[in-house]
Amino acid sequence: MTQHQLAKWSDADIIVYIGCGERGNEMTEVLEDFPKLIDPSSNLPLMNRTILIANTSNMPVAAREASIYTGITIAEYFRDMGYNVAVMADSTSRWAEALREISGRLEEMPAEEGYPAYLPSRLAEFYERAGYVKTLNDKEASVTIIGAVSPAGGDFSEPVTQNTKRFVSAFLGLDRKLAYSRHYPAINWLSSYSGYITQLEDWYKQNVAEDMIFLRGEMMKILQEESKLQETVKLVGEDVLPDQQRLILEIARLLKVGYLQQNAYHKEDTFVPLNKQYLMLKVIDNFYKLAKEAVKVGVPISVIKTSDLFYKIIKMKYEIPSDFGRSFDELMNDISEYFSNLIREYEGD
């Protein structure tokens, strides 16, 4: 589903999907689903700009190794023609397993977990073929690689995952617990990261808002603090925590359910413009700051938690359309007015 969404909403002109060692039914699913996905930029089936490299798990091991190189070579061909190409490689773990099997048959000296000693250099060579170029006819073009790693048992310390993280600057770590709790996309916000934040800071300032990166940092602090508090909650329960800390738990819930959780089948939530993402974060940040002031003057956390505004913020991603107009200003005003009255009431008491 994540790959479908990336393919559908990316700015790429061409999608190259490499099914490396995939099960046959999964490849069939891609063939059935992609024609049904409508490209929002052209209103035509997404399959019209998709190249599929089908390499099922029952094919020879040598074909599995070649599939990755075939896909990236095709991507470079279209890049040299002036197109922006996105490569979906699923999965590089099975490609690495093919390297291990071929290496074993060649009787090469095995390294960690039986993988060949040249595994890191092969991964580096693959990912370093991505990039932005100016073609010979002065067109701007690029290749973006999105590689899926499927470590056995979800062990991120195994060689393929660790070596991949050495060469890429963005990592989305899927979490089985989130998937079981039906939190989609099941991307863990603490294990995932991007190394492009500082590079993108100026772009965000010019195109979104001056404080976008700062606001993101503040929200990440809340999520990190909530993760630490959950350890205490498991031991002694939530009721023994002071209201300031219980507020952090509730704001983290707002972030997780109202912002990070996304419905790919909802017309408003399937794709959210950056400006709307920023304003959603701004609303949550404003609510947190005013709620903190309210807690200081003695407002119980239960009153804040049960307010209609709390649930209105959770639903704002569905109820406020992408061409939101003044909807967020009205929500901000409602929050300010609610807490002003609440603080005045408790200060009077």
What does this structure look like?
Helix 2 (24-33) links the parallel strand 1 and strand 2 (50-56). The longest helix has 25 residues, at 212-236. Helix 11 runs parallel beside helix 15 (327-348). The radius of gyration is 24 Å and the shape is globular. It is 54% helix and 11% strand. With 349 residues, the protein is an alpha/beta fold. The mean pLDDT is 91. The strands form 2 sheets. It has a 5-stranded mixed sheet with strand order 2-1-3-5-4, with helices on both faces. The protein has a two-stranded antiparallel ribbon with strand order 6-7. 24% of the residues are buried.
Helix fraction bin? 40-55%
**Strand fraction band?**
5-15%
CA radius of gyration: 24 Å
Residue stretches low in confidence (pLDDT < 50, at least 5 long) are none
Major sheet description: 5 strands, mixed
Mean pLDDT: 91
What is the terminal separation in angstroms?
A: 53 Å
Give the helix/strand layout.
Layout: H1 2-9, E1 14-22, H2 24-33, E2 50-56, H3 61-80, E3 84-90, H4 92-105, H5 119-127, E4 131-134, E5 140-148, H6 159-167, E6 170-171, H7 176-180, E7 193-194, H8 197-207, H9 212-236, H10 243-260, H11 274-296, H12 301-305, H13 308-314, H14 316-319, H15 327-348
Parallel strand pairs: 1-2, 1-3, 3-5
Antiparallel strand pairs: 4-5, 6-7
